[in-house]
Design brief:
26 helices, 4-stranded mixed sheet, Rossmann fold, globular, 5-stranded parallel sheet, single chain, alpha/beta, about 575 residues
């Protein structure tokens, strides 16, 4: 897959970090662009002018405002950025009420039948019953989700945790956001709505979340974690702080990659044993093997080392009459892989199927709701127009159903990105979602309602935002990020909110747009302030103040920074 790489020499390190999707490097390089030293406090006359401007802005929103309260600060969304005020002590302390049953969205469908793996299931149950962290590791498509779905509904665990087993797909979401979502699924804050219908959300601090999780007597199940270095470090830190909360995770890495520092129970997954692999192959074929097929079936299962996804895809090639089983084995003997045969199959499919594959490959395995496909494919807005080609791809094992979403099978993403020209599709996807976000944001609705479509597509939008960064479509990065921000702020997904702001900061600098950069820095500073990081808050807000003074616009800076000793 080809992406734009042109840039000035000065910005080359940032561009290279963006191309690799290295958020840590982007953040570090952007921090080096801060030019204004931190003052001890902001001038009183400036603060008064700023707060008057911000209060007028907040009052002119024209719809019930939303608030997020965290630590000692109340944040409120305005068109000029986050407005933050110190929270006055309340007469009654805030308490958290455990929901009678967890939010049903934190459940997974039970698995009809699990082939083999009984030893692994038994080992995981024993580990979970003793507390701590249990990591099931293996490559994508090896069957980790099947194990997790089995464990979530296993009688021994459901009896022990009284149905309080929370399942969530983690993917590459920041772990702090995952813990926040789990707390929201378990607890209800007993704080009434504010005046004038204002909705108030409470974001507990990290120590408060750890305490709430420890008191809930739950088992947490996190699926599809990427298992990168930062995620593994965060997992270990949390598991050590919340020792009484069993944590079951599926990591898309080899077991040995966790290293000796990992103190939990590791359950590495291999392929299915030969007999179970043959059963899965027969299920994929929709029939029993004939006598003359047994030898070829055994060879196929051995060559694929019992890898479930490729077994299912191989069975689909035979079932769809693309190959006989003997023909499939002959190709393998000649060194042709199942992935190569699938690519050839995709290339011979009708145009609608190829368009769907191109769109999903461009997104790099990010899940997409099928409702977006008709317009992206330049067909119509009728979802039924894509049902048949989408079902064809699902039957071939090329597209995976992921709840209400669909995505390209992981083993096909790299070869298709290498061999197809996807750049026109990248432009199409970015343009479509930029327009869709504009249409989806309705100013007449309360914020909590207007952001619902954006929250429902948040994983897709994050993938599109990173695609726009790799394509260096900086105006789209600003537009998409701006549309995503309110939902991330109000949904208390502040880890992802920070990541979006970093990419917007990169876009603003690339466009040399000081107004946009000042807005992003203001948001970063407001977020840092609410989370208790006063040094970062002063750094960001001071730079934003400097830019806005240069631009001659009312600088939106917070009065709580009037004195660092406040």
């Amino acid at each position: 897959m080809v992406f734009h790489t042109s840039s000035t020499t000065r910005d080359l390190p940032l561009v290279e970090a963006a191309q690799m999707g290295n958020l840590e490097a982007i953040a570090s390089l952007l921090q080096q662009t801060i030019t204004v030293s931190q003052p001890d406090f902001l001038p009183t006359d400036v603060v008064q002018t700023v707060m008057q401007t911000m209060t007028q802005t907040a009052a002119s929103v024209g719809r019930p405002a939303s608030h997020v309260v965290t630590n000692d600060y109340d944040s409120r969304w305005t068109d000029r950025g986050i407005l933050v005020n110190a929270v006055h002590p309340v007469s009654a302390p805030l308490t958290w009420q455990l929901r009678p049953t967890p939010d049903p969205s934190y459940r997974c469908a039970p698995l009809t039948r699990l082939l083999g793996r009984q030893d692994l299931v038994n080992g995981a149950i024993a580990s979970l019953q003793s507390g701590g962290i249990t990591a099931i590791t293996g490559i994508n498509g090896i069957g980790k989700t099947a194990i997790l779905r089995t464990l979530c509904h296993h009688p021994q665990l459901t009896a022990q945790f009284a149905q309080r087993i929370l399942y969530m797909r983690g993917c590459d979401r920041p772990l702090e956001d995952i813990w926040q979502s789990i707390v929201d699924g378990l607890y209800q804050a007993n704080l009434a709505n504010g005046a004038n219908g204002a909705a108030i959300e409470i974001k507990p601090s990290t120590p408060e979340m750890q305490t709430l999780l420890a008191q809930a007597s739950v088992c947490i199940v996190l699926d599809e974690l990427t298992g990168d270095r930062n995620q593994c470090a965060d997992l270990m830190r949390w598991s050590q702080m919340v020792t009484q909360t069993p944590l079951l995770v599926a990591l898309s890495i080899e077991g040995s990659a966790l290293g000796e520092s990992f103190k939990g129970q590791q359950c590495p997954m291999q392929g299915l044993p030969i007999q179970d692999a043959i059963v899965l192959l027969e299920e994929g074929l929709g029939r029993s093997l004939q006598a003359h097929e047994w030898q070829d079936a055994q060879y196929l299962c051995q060559q694929l080392v019992g890898y479930p996804r490729r077994l299912i895809q191989s069975a689909a090639l035979v079932r769809q009459q693309q190959h006989s089983l003997a023909d499939l084995v002959q190709h393998l003997r000649r060194g042709t892989t199942v992935d190569a045969m699938l690519l050839k199959t995709v290339g011979a499919l009708p145009d609608p199927e190829r368009r769907i594959v191109a769109i999903l490959a461009t997104l790099g395995g990010i899940p997409l709701h099928p409702n977006h496909l008709p317009t992206l494919m330049n067909l119509s807005r009728d979802t039924a127009s894509v049902d048949e080609p989408l079902q064809t791809l699902i039957q071939h094992g090329i597209v995976i159903v992921d709840g209400p979403y669909c995505r390209l099978a992981d083993n096909l993403v790299p070869p298709i990105q290498r061999s197809w020209n996807l750049e026109p599709w990248a432009t199409q996807i970015i343009s479509y979602f930029t327009a869709w976000l504009t249409q989806s944001t309705t100013a007449s609705l309360a914020m909590a309602e207007s952001i619902l479509p954006i929250q429902a597509n948040s994983d897709t939008l994050w993938g599109v935002l990173r695609l726009a960064v790799r394509q260096q479509q900086w105006s789209a990065v600003l537009a998409i990020g701006t549309a995503m921000q309110p939902g991330l702020w109000l949904g208390k997904q502040w880890g992802r909110w920070q990541q979006v702001l970093l990419l917007q900061w990169l876009a603003a600098r690339s466009l040399q747009d000081k107004t946009a950069e000042a807005t992003v820095l203001h948001q970063l500073g407001s977020r840092a302030l609410c989370l208790g990081d006063r040094i970062a808050a002063q750094t960001y807000l001071t730079q934003a103040f400097h830019y806005r003074c240069q631009l001659g616009v009312p600088p939106a800076v917070l009065r709580v920074l009037q004195s660092r000793d406040r």
